Amino acid sequence: MNVGSVERSTKETSIRLELGPAGRIATKISTPVGFLDHMLDTIARHAGIGLSVEAKGDVHIDFHHTVEDTGLAFGEALEKSLGDKRGIRRFGHAYVPLDEALARVVVDLSGRPYFAWEVPFDREMLLVTPDFPFALVEEFFKSVAFRGRLNLHAALLSGRNGHHAAEAITKAFARALREATAPSGDAEIASTKGTLV
What are the per-10-residue average pLDDT scores of the chain (197 residues)? Predict the structure, then answer.
């Protein structure tokens, strides 16, 4: 993994994001959305990466644009940091429990974006926090998958508390990403095609 940097500026948001090896990038996260900060810090910690994020957005309207655009920036920076993906495992998966919640996330750094979200609807899970809708967790990871050009399957196997479910999914993604970006032990690209694009 190298360093991947992205600057994204629209009428709705302004984002500077850099990710890479933990020893090269110091984790420093500043967005106007508290739970998004927590998600990003959780990903950095459990994926074993350094992550620097400075985001501003039109949160007086709602959090959607800031969360979605930060996910887009994260995915793009991840794709840049992996280059041709030579010498990494490519696939990763993780199961993570948090109290009653159990999440499973599987990733393939295939270069082909796909996103599957198997989270049963429950009224008790409408909110992660009083001002952060659970639907934004899905929007973040969908943005990561499509802009990062990875195959991401997330499933909540059990859970009723929105905060617990969001945390379990976020940690499972991070642990799956850590496994997928780990060295494979050889210098080959893990594909019979010889490329992951």
Answer: 92 95 92 96 97 94 94 96 89 97 96 94 78 94 97 96 95 98 77 57
In whole angstroms, give the CA distance from residue 141 to residue 174: 11
Beta-carbon contacts of residue 68 (< 8 Å; ≥ 6 apart): 136, 139, 140, 143
Query: For the whole prediction, is pTM greater than 0.85?
Result: yes
The dihedral sign for the CA sequence 55, 58, 61, 66: negative
**Nearest of 50, 27, 37, 26 to residue 129 by alpha carbon:** 37
- Tally the residues of the chain: 197
Torsion of CA 40, 55, 74, 134, to 10 degrees: 60
Closest CA to 154 of 139, 132, 138: 138
133: enclosing H helix or E strand:
strand 132-133
Model pLDDT, residue 65:
95
Provide the 3-class DSSP secondary structure of residue 13: strand
User: What does the pLDDT read at residue 122?
Assistant: 73
Give the C-alpha separation, 157 to 66, whole Å. Answer: 28
